[in-house]
Prior knowledge:
Order of helices and strands of chain A: HEEHEEHEE
Strand content of chain A: 5-15%
Largest sheet of chain A: 2 strands, antiparallel
CATH class of chain A: Alpha Beta
Structural class of chain A: alpha+beta
Low-confidence stretches of chain A: none
Oligomer: heterodimer
Shape of chain A: globular
Strand order of the largest sheet of chain A: 1-6
Distance between the termini of chain B: 52 Å
Shape of chain B: globular
Largest sheet of chain B: 9 strands, mixed
Mean pLDDT of chain A: 94
Number of domains of chain B: 3
Amino acid sequence: MSVKVEEKLFQNRYLVDEGHPHVCVPEGKGATPALKAIISCCPAGCWGLTEDGKVEPTLDGCLECGTCRILTAKDGDLNWNYPRGGFGIAYKFG
Amino acid sequence: MAEHFDAIVVGAGPAGSAAAYTMAKAGLSVLQLERGEYPGAKNVQGAILYADAVADLIPDFREEAPLERHIIEQRMWMLDDRSHIASHFRSENFNEEEPNRYTIIRTQFDKWFSSKVREAGALLICETTVTDLMKDEKGRVVGVRTDREGGEITADVVILAEGVNALVASKAGFAPTPNPENFALGVKEMHFLPQDVIEQRFNIGEDEGVVIEAIGTVTQGMLGTGFIYTNKESLAVGLGCMVSDFAHSGITPYDLLENFKQHPSVKPLLAGSEVKEYSAHMIPEGGYKAMPKVFGDGWMIAGDTGQFVNSLHREGSNMALTTGKVAGETVAALKREGKPMTEANLARYRQTLNDSYVIKDLKKYRELPGILHRNKQFVTTYPQLMSKAMESWFRVDGIDKRTKEKSILKSFLSARSFTGLIGDAIKVARAIR
């Protein structure tokens, strides 16, 4: 069984910081095993493989949990920051 | 902002607010910085609130805090795909004058708690992300940098209560490179139902609450637990598994949650509900051995940033409140004594924690995370064996009871062997002794 995570994220409230992604893959980094792992681990389904085999995020639904950060921390496969103040997920219930 | 503060607190979760509240009450000038639009905007919890740690700060919190239900019944479930074995503890003693545990809606609670912090005199600035710590030439922490223009602010001491991701602490070299085996990822949905429906389904009265914790095949071989908590007009439904296990399994967290919701023991409890939020958050579950150093020259760490979570007992918010409070008290006491916020003086924070339930409990279970990581049978094989045994025992089918006994014993021996069973018993004893 597979669910559409987008339908879940649709319930949430976000203040999207257009043009300021808070997570990115460093320039020149290929699809490392850790980066591939975060595709399935991300609870918001933010990550995917591009046609040229790169792992890239779409951060609009990011829940800022940090799972991708933890999985890639050892080899520095991601530049991970908190979103700018006020932006990102704004939980109603938490 | 050129102003200098006695203390800066990073984060307005339970740890940060407990610290800020304690110091503001003691008359210190306190700046608290929160990156969310409001306190609680970034925070997720099951959520169960442990009254004792709150009452320690605000004795009469029950009169005004947004509490959902006090818990009168704890259900422990062991699930396989089609069944569950349960042990319930319900007691009228939990219907007491001052109940011990409550379900809460975390964002609402954090907003309320923060209002008390501001009443006590702390200055709270939201929508401001702390990006780094400022250090002097000797490496002492002297303030914070933020993402606001001209956002450098100084203080005698900085308390890092930034939550599980410990980004500022990591940048400053105060937290180690995170290990996926030390973190669980939890996902949760808020399911809304009419109050009377919840009370009928869970066999509870007005204000009474039930907690369900579930282990078994629902985590699909990963180390983790599922949960259902009753709020007044909603159910919090979720599960959490180790991040390292998610990476190995390739199972997505949302598919796992969906499967849990479809379990025949869970589905009827949620029937007809309206989902209003989907959340995810990490929990630091590395325990005592994963704890970073929590104080130094001009800084302290409180709450999830310091890995203060007792995963077995599902305690974290209480440890956040207690560590925040003790950190705040340490600063207040040093101020009173006219002493500087040096590493040697702030060591008092850790000493006080050593004598409290926080470090005592974390120390007690220090072997647990490692043992569970190496022995997944406790959440996979055993729930399945137990379920089959129960089914055989209760099914009346013309097979005599001695034959059933033998076949149950055989199923355990073939799954785990005699020495395996003994070994597992010893492991459990070692993990929780």
